[in-house]
Design brief:
- By secondary structure, this protein is mostly helical.
- It is about 50% helix and about 5% strand.
- It is built from 17 helices and 10 strands.
- The strands form 4 sheets. Strands 1-2-8 form a 3-stranded mixed sheet. Strands 4-10-9 form a 3-stranded antiparallel sheet.
- It is globular, with a radius of gyration of 21 Å.
- The termini are far apart.
């Protein structure tokens, strides 16, 4: 079959296409695209969960693309991150950053998150149209992750721009240039912090590099870039998608307005309903495998559609319904297994604080544009709004 994710209608609403594919077969081959390769798309929940932990699937992109003559010029720090590695390398790298995102560590950040949210909401023009994405969903997680890493305030607008350009689907030159810009910036920041050490996460990673934890200079830069970009991209889309889902459903919105303490309990359902990551990052078969009832040969890419898996009726009853009473903890929006998003606790804390404060401060907030006129980001990897105009 041809790749349905290249259909312009897919970006607006991928779920009908996902449902049609899943009903035919939850694991399907897609015809070769411009790169000349055939790949497989996973849309079923059980098959997606299996794929995310399958020993026959690798994330080591360096091995896959070796000798294939790619013309891309992505910076190595972006092309070969912890996400694009397998154990034992992945295990070693992940261990170095996990402590920064534990529940306890995130709890210490909550006052700062609340302070930043309050400052951003204070700038919203009451009675006028503003952009929920540009005025809250983008800057909040950027500021938080930059604070965590120790990125100076005056540099954060650059980080925001480069990160957005890294997801510019269909614009390889823009993506490649952004990868060099952000990697060069982090290289310079690391050098500056060596001269003037602080106490942030990046300083601790530098100590690991210069100590006994066997972190190479390239790995140090790569980890810093990954944390910087992944540390806010998912949260930005999570916030925008969640806000839209509630604004489109007045009954659910009113319920949370009247009971804002319920916000933490509904985050998993909001994540399941419209996943901020549509397709998991790159995987390929190292050997021939069976995924569900589908035979997949060795050496081919496997795309795991997390958004599709979260709408599988075999796992979630009435999956196209936003049910705030649903137990959706088994959703795959943060992945599953050893590659599950290390920053998930931080993303949920930011979303909880931001949504609760918006609902209580602006109880009359409503959409300022028809839903079918909203612009979605032009990328199939993440699912997020380019803008969300609202009135308060």
């Amino acid at each position: 079959m041809t790749d349905p994710t290249r259909d312009p209608r897919f970006l607006q609403d991928p779920y009908p296409m996902y449902a049609a594919m899943r009903s035919t077969c939850p694991v399907q081959s897609m015809s070769a695209g411009s790169d000349g390769r055939t790949s497989y798309l996973v849309t079923g929940y059980a098959e997606a969960r299996e794929a995310l932990t399958h020993p026959g699937l690798s994330k080591d992109t360096a091995v896959f693309f070796e000798g294939k003559g790619s013309q891309r010029r992505l910076h190595p720090a972006v092309a070969h991150t912890m996400l694009a590695s397998d154990p034992p390398q992945h295990t070693r790298l992940r261990k170095l950053v996990t402590k920064a995102f534990t529940t306890g560590a995130v709890a210490e950040l909550r006052p700062f998150i609340a302070q930043v949210t309050e400052e951003l909401l204070h700038q919203w023009p009451v009675g006028e149209c503003f952009d929920f994405v540009a005025d809250l969903a983008v800057p909040l997680p950027v500021i938080v992750i930059c604070e965590l890493l120790g990125v100076p305030e005056e540099d954060r607008t650059h980080i925001q721009r480069w990160s957005g350009e890294l997801f510019a689907a269909g614009k390889p030159d823009v993506i490649d240039a952004a990868s060099h810009a952000v990697a060069d910036y982090m290289t310079g920041l690391i050098a500056a912090k060596r001269l003037n050490p602080g106490s942030g996460l990046l300083d601790r990673l530098i100590s690991a590099r210069d100590g006994d934890d066997q972190l190479s200079e390239e790995e140090l830069v790569s980890l810093a870039v990954l944390l910087l970009v992944a540390g806010h991209e998912t949260t930005t889309n999570f916030l925008g998608n969640a806000a839209l889902a509630l604004l489109q459903r007045p009954a659910e919105l009113d319920r949370l307005r009247e009971n804002p303490d319920e916000v933490p309990a509904v985050l998993d359902e909001l994540l399941r309903f419209d996943s901020p990551v549509s397709t998991a990052t790159f995987r390929f078969t190292t050997e021939a495998i069976m995924l569900g009832d589908t035979h997949i040969p060795a050496g081919v890419p496997v795309l795991v559609a997390l958004g599709a898996a979260n709408r599988d009726p075999e796992q979630f009853l009435s999956p196209d319904l936003l049910d705030l009473d649903r137990d959706a903890a088994a959703h795959l929006s943060f992945g599953h297994g050893i590659h599950r998003c290390v920053g998930a606790p931080l993303a949920k804390a930011e979303a909880e604080i931001a949504l609760r404060m918006v609902l209580t401060r602006f109880p009359e907030m409503r959409l300022a544009a028809p839903s079918d006129r909203l612009e979605w980001r032009q990328t199939r990897l993440v699912r997020g709004l380019a803008s969300l105009p609202v009135l308060v």
